[in-house]
Amino acid sequence: MIKLVSFTAAVCWGPDEPFKIEEIEVEPPRALEIRVRMICASLCHSDIIVWVTVQPLYPRILGHEGVGVVESVGEGVIDLKQGDTIIPTFIGECGECINCLSGKTNICFKHPMLIDGLMPDKTSRLSVGGEKLYHMFTCGTWSEYMVLSVAYAVKVDASLPPAHASLLSCGFSTGYGGPWKEAKVEMGSTAAVFGLGGVGIGAIAGAKMMGASRIIGVDINNKKKEKAEFFGMTDFVNPIEVGKSASEAIKEMTGGLGVDYSFECSGVEVLLNEAVAATVPGRGMTISIGTGVDVSFKMFQLAMNKTLRGTLFGGIRPRLDLPTLIQKSLNKVFMQTYH
């Protein structure tokens, strides 16, 4: 008989329904699993999409960004121990499958993104009132405790501020990886970032780190301008204020050519076409980072020898690349570089 321990969590009972703080039951970890006491959790646009539109799996605990402390470990866990601080990841990295060995992608065949709201073995460690609880991707961070496969956990230094660690588990890292891992932005190139939320700020920081000479941010919220400038944005476009499309404004700012790279980080359907249109014909590249819905795309843009590339987690490999960002954050590199 598996002993259940009671904690509280924000439980979603249906699309668009308000979350309810419920007492839930959390099983101890099984083999190659850890049970984690959550310290901090973030809200990501992907959580909203899943809540209202994707896969009606209820009751459900959402949240996939967060940081916590290992409370207990299951059989066979050797790389983590009780008391370690970890962040969850929504993809894994086995280092052995053909994709991992290629060095060209972060899509691991052995530890893929899970979208059925269950553990890798297709069961749940969570329940509410005796009813099975689903979670988001590999876990549900909007809970006091959660159980996680060690394949989707990365250890972090306990001195890293929890809010920073939480954002590194998805949002900021996803944006940062776009220019770094996917586009491989060249020194002196130009870039545009559509949407200046957590992902967009990460994309700006990544483009700056790669040496982009001009980084144009696009948003309709002027309050985001100051923070984006702090991380490296050189120009700002609010399409509503300038009275023209973002792509038109960007072309005017770049001598009619457009930018070398654009990063769509908003998830707003119409902006993917704008992001592609804003790039220079013949070699422009657009990385679709934030789009989470089906879009109607103008294919003639690609006929101009432009490239549109999708990405998951910004191309970041959890075990090989995340430690680099964690160390940069610990060293306050982002603040020192852009202050």
From TrEMBL:
Gene Ontology MF annotations: alcohol dehydrogenase (NAD+) activity; S-(hydroxymethyl)glutathione dehydrogenase [NAD(P)+] activity; zinc ion binding
Signal peptide start-end: none
Highest taxon of source: Eukaryota
Transmembrane segments annotated in the record for this chain: none
Reactions catalysed according to its record: a secondary alcohol + NAD(+) = a ketone + NADH + H(+); a primary alcohol + NAD(+) = an aldehyde + NADH + H(+)
GO cellular-component term (any): cytosol
Residue stretches making up the Alcohol dehydrogenase-like C-terminal domain: 198-327
Keywords: Metal-binding, NAD, Oxidoreductase, Zinc
Cofactor(s) the protein requires to work: Zn(2+)
InterPro entries, alphabetized: ADH-like_C, ADH-like_N, ADH_Zn_CS, GroES-like_sf, NAD(P)-bd_dom_sf
GO biological process: formaldehyde catabolic process
Domain Alcohol dehydrogenase-like N-terminal residues, every copy: 33-156
Oligomer status and interactors: Homodimer.
Family from the record: Belongs to the zinc-containing alcohol dehydrogenase family. Class-IV subfamily.
Stated name of the protein: Alcohol dehydrogenase-like 7
Species whose genome carries this gene: Acorus gramineus
